[in-house]
Amino acid sequence: MGNQAVLDKEPSLVYEFDGALYLNITSRCPTACRFCVKFSWDYSYRGNNLKLPEDPSVDDIVRALPDNLSRFREIVFCGYGESTYRLSEMKALAPILRYKGAKRLRLNTVGLGNLIHGRNVAPELGEFLDAVSISLNTVDPIQYVEIMRPRPEFREKALDSVKEFIVACVKSVPETVVSAVALTGVDISGVPAVAKEAGALFRLRPFLDSPE
To answer: Taking a C-beta distance cutoff of 8 angstroms, is the pair 20, 73 a contact?
Structure first.
């Protein structure tokens, strides 16, 4: 299905992939990562239109959920935006997801939640998450800004804030994974060390090259 055909569909608030259910709760993001496929696929993903005209309400998301969530290995807060913008909504959704059978709740994030909210949000995430996956990609300050392209107000503090967020999540969330995308010309050699020092796991992610 072509991108335009996908974008002509109603936006998907939930979508399935590889045995997991993903919740698309915002299109807002504090970064404009060069490798993000929303720029090359124009917010389409595996037949789903993930471009939200506005943030959906908790009720909107609940109405989009399947009745029984126990068939999914996990429920993931992840669309083409940064879910920590919707921290209050995630808190409200968590008990509903558990009631409907969710076995595991995970957040995919660029790790700038503390800058977004102006406080350490990791303890709050630990109240309802089983796991958090944090995208770091490089520890080189120049490369970080070049590939992650954080918003101007976050640019100077972004890399250090992500590192601090990783440490805070290890203390608060049962499982913390630090990930890096395999990108040509990007030095990811320091990322596993940051994860190890913090007590987090490390995962190398392949660059996605197809929306199908």
So the answer is: yes
CB-CB neighbours of 9 under 10 Å: 12
Single pTM value for the model: 0.91
> Exposed, middle or buried: residue 162 (CB in 10 Å: 0-12, 13-18, 19+)?
buried
pLDDT tens digits, residue range 1-44?
445 665 557 889 999 999 999 999 999 999 998 887 776 667 77
d(CA 150, CA 87) in angstroms, rounded, equals 19
Report the run of H or E that residue 172 belongs to, with start and end.
helix 158-172
Domain ranges of the chain: 3-205
- Integer CA distances (angstroms), 137 to 24, 62, 74, 88, 118, in order: 22, 33, 24, 27, 23
Q: Does domain 3-205 match CATH 3.50.30.50?
A: no
* High-pLDDT (> 70) share of the chain, %: 92
CA distances from 52 to 10, 12, 44 (A): 9, 8, 11
Residues of 132-144 as b/e, b for ≥16 C-beta within 10 angstroms?
A: bbbbbbbbbeebb
Instruction: Write out the two tokens for 115.
Output: 């800058």
Q: Fill in the DSSP letter of residue 65.
A: S
